[in-house]
Amino acid sequence: MGVTRTPRERWIEQGLQALAAGGPDAVRVEALAKELGVTKGGFYGSFADRDALLQAMLDTWERESTDEVIDRVEREGGDPKTRIQRAGVLTFSGDRLLPIDLAVRDWARRDEAVAERLRRVDNRRMALLRDMIGTFCPDADEVEARSLIAFCVAIGEHFLAADHADRTRAEVLVRAADLLLDRPTRTTAPSSEDRPGHRPGR
How many domains does the chain have? Predict the structure, then answer.
């Protein structure tokens, strides 16, 4: 009976988890094999070398964070403002895509090829924001500014350590989203998913 080969997707997934936890230097074949409970020899049945794994990981991240997010946003429908919120929640919430995204951004500071990949992903995200915001904002310059601010809020709030006086971060983020999306000021407590980049428990 032949030896069962570890599926290629499991190596990629374990690599993405290592990347999110410790950056690209943490993606080591021997360490991944140990986490998977297999020998590292099986790795070479799926990948020519470590660089091939890193490229496959980036391919998976790009597909999940652009194609799959956009497909789901379009499939689930709703008005443009709802779709903007959904795209932000899918991309910058939870324990999967957000840590990988932040790790890729850090990696891109030291690797031009990764930086080019990140630029392509961010350009697709910005294009989605422009399309959606453009449906209720007629000024092209303002559309670009709102898109940039929305993107910066979604990413930057994970790095900002500032307090907000008697307001919570969640309350400030919801108000920021209301301003960007031309929504009326709330008089009741908003849903946690109304804020950009919402993460459960924050």
Answer: 1
